[in-house]
Specification:
There is one protein chain. A 3-stranded antiparallel beta sheet has the order 1-2-3. The protein contains 11 helices and 3 strands. β1 and β2 form a beta hairpin. It is flat. Helices cover about 65% and strands about 10% of the residues.
Length: about 240
């Protein structure tokens, strides 16, 4: 590993609050496939296998935390809370907090297209870093790392619990108040195939029609449902 790269990774270690025994693991966690494709003369490997492992480790650690912290919660409640914590947007936000984008090795094309700020790349890199910590220090170290990051977010949720599954909440309200169910329709797609944004419209007859966006259709539907819930809440406030 080149000296300048080693110094970069030492800085990231300080930001993460974890010192690697094998810093090459961290280097691989931050190597995007676009960099490997453009530097095939090198022996480096991309972070996709680490991303796969890190996703599983993160799910396990969050599940472990939630089961301990909420002994009376049903499986469905735990699943919804876990999903709200480990989807692309919060993981990208955590990656930004640690400045992980600054340390990712990207190909020139991905760099030029703003890859360092793409939520998908940031979230994947953060999961890969989790895998690197797990491989370097074991479950105890990675659990401590993840708990330190997510415990404040869990406590915030515990103090002010809300519906993270906006689609389910919207359907419940529509059935109880409007005697109908919301309808979702894909109205637009933006961007290249590898980084699309979807726009979904949700409606319930003439009662409301709201749009939402996301990096996949499920995220766009949730965003549209969130906007529709706000519309219904405002309408209820005006009626009262």
């Amino acid at each position: 590993m080149r000296e300048n790269r080693s110094q970069q990774l030492k800085l990231l270690e300080r930001l993460l609050g974890y010192e690697f025994g094998d810093r090459d693991l961290l280097d691989r966690a931050l190597t995007h496939r676009s960099y490997v494709n453009e530097n095939q003369h090198l022996t480096c490997r991309d972070n996709e296998r680490f991303e796969f492992l890190g996703d599983a480790v993160l799910q396990l650690c969050i599940s472990d935390i939630l089961v301990r912290q909420f002994p009376d919660h049903a499986e469905g409640q735990l699943s919804k809370l876990r999903a709200s914590l480990v989807n692309e947007h919060p993981l990208a936000a955590v990656a930004l907090d640690f400045r992980i984008g600054e340390f990712i090795l990207l190909g020139k094309g991905e760099e030029a297209s703003g890859g360092r700020m793409k939520h998908s790349i940031l979230a994947d890199a953060f999961e890969a870093v989790i895998a690197a910590i797990y491989l370097d220090g074991g479950y105890g170290e990675v659990f401590s790392f993840i708990n330190g990051i997510f415990q404040p977010r869990i406590e915030e949720w515990e103090m002010a619990p809300i519906y993270r599954d906006y689609k389910s909440r919207l359907q419940e309200l529509c059935q109880s108040r409007l005697k109908t169910i919301p309808q979702y329709e894909l109205v637009a797609e933006y961007g290249p195939d590898h980084d699309k944004t979807f726009e979904i419209e949700v409606s319930a007859g003439s009662m409301f029609s709201e749009k939402g966006r996301g990096k996949n259709k499920k995220e766009a539907e949730q965003d549209a449902a969130r906007a529709a819930l706000e519309t219904m809440e405002h309408a209820t406030g005006r009626q009262s």
